[in-house]
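In response to the reviewer comment on reproducibility (Comment 2.3), we provide here a single inverse folding case reported in full, input and output, so that an independent group could reproduce the run without further information from us. The structure tokens appear first.
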């Protein structure tokens, strides 16, 4: 292993951390300067930026005629964003959830996830279906801009008091956001490439590398952003980034990919019968958890992390056709999942009665 590989790995980690800090700082101040909620900035500007790695990977996959990578990248990233990224953020600090997310974005995320599954039941995501998804993100962005000033916007008095308004400061914030996104993409690329080389050097199989390092790689920008955002107390930005990123991944990334792919995208049967239902289940799980006191508690974040570990374990057992696969699947199907569903419903019902009273 060349020393430069280790150097790039370390530099990539540093760039990722610095980029996330710069991005969160710039996005937060941009929202304040424009008088809009950080939630909207997280749902649009930051979400689009952190989805850039997925878009880049999918464009390359489309031209290289690798539809499995394109589909798996988006579906896997959406699962990981909720279970791992949001789980980590909630464990760091309980996250407040804006009512708008419950009323609009989370149902929309569930809806587009179900729509994607319905569109690919024939085994293909064709160009017309890709156009439909792409139009969806355009309408969503327009709607978000129109409603940007209607929710918890910073007051003009606070802006003047802080002295952070004006064209010059606006340009500075935009530069912060662009630089932050650039550092995130570059840092995640170097970190992933370095990690793959290091893993191979120590004899780790390509299967394990693919199931761990590569699958997490395109979600590193979201992970870094939510960690820094949580530490800085930017809760709306954090949760908005995750939900918005999932919307962008399906509507923009998959929609655009199927438009440029020759003949559309062929969808693997395994993704239709397993991974996409898991993606939908993760999206649906957000609703009762977000609804309970409009707060994601640490234990709920830990629950998300546990489910990601279970999902990753299943992928490993299935890929290797391990002898424990049958027993593992049975325990999941008849015990863990029903118990979790009942618990979430009980908490949601308890909170609903509390609000009603």
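Designed residues, in position order:
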């Amino acid at each position: 292993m060349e020393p430069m590989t280790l150097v790039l790995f370390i530099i990539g980690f540093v760039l990722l951390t610095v980029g996330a800090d710069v991005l969160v700082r710039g996005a937060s101040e941009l929202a304040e300067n424009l008088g809009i909620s950080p939630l909207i900035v997280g749902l649009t500007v930051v979400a689009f930026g952190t989805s850039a790695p997925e878009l880049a990977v999918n464009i390359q996959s489309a031209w290289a005629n690798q539809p499995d990578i394109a589909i798996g990248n988006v579906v896997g990233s959406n699962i990981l964003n909720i279970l791992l990224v949001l789980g980590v953020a909630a464990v760091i600090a309980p996250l407040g959830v804006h009512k708008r997310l419950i009323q609009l974005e989370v149902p929309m995320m569930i809806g587009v996830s179900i729509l994607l599954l319905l569109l690919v039941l024939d085994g293909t995501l064709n160009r017309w279906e890709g156009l439909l998804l792409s139009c969806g993100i355009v309408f969503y962005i327009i709607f978000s801009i129109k409603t940007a000033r209607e929710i918890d916007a910073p007051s003009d008095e606070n802006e003047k008091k802080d002295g952070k308004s004006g064209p010059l400061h606006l340009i500075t914030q935009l530069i912060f956001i662009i630089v932050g996104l650039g550092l995130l993409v570059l840092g995640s690329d170097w970190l992933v490439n370095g990690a793959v080389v290091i893993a191979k050097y120590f004899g780790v199989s390509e299967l394990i590398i693919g199931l761990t390092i590569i699958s997490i790689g395109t979600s590193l920008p979201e992970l870094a952003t939510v960690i820094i955002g949580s530490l800085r107390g930017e809760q709306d930005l954090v949760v908005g980034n995750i939900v918005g990123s999932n919307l962008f991944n399906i509507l923009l990334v998959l929609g655009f990919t199927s438009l440029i792919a020759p003949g559309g995208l062929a969808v693997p049967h395994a993704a239709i019968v397993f991974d996409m239902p898991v993606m939908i289940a993760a999206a649906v799980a957000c609703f009762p958890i977000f609804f309970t006191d409009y707060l994601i508690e640490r234990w709920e974040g830990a629950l998300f992390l546990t489910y990601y570990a279970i999902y990753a374990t299943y992928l490993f057992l299935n890929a290797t056709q391990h002898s424990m696969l049958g027993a593992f699947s049975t325990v999941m199907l008849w015990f863990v999942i029903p118990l979790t569903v009942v618990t979430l419903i009980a908490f949601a019902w308890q909170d609903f009665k509390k609000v009603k009273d």
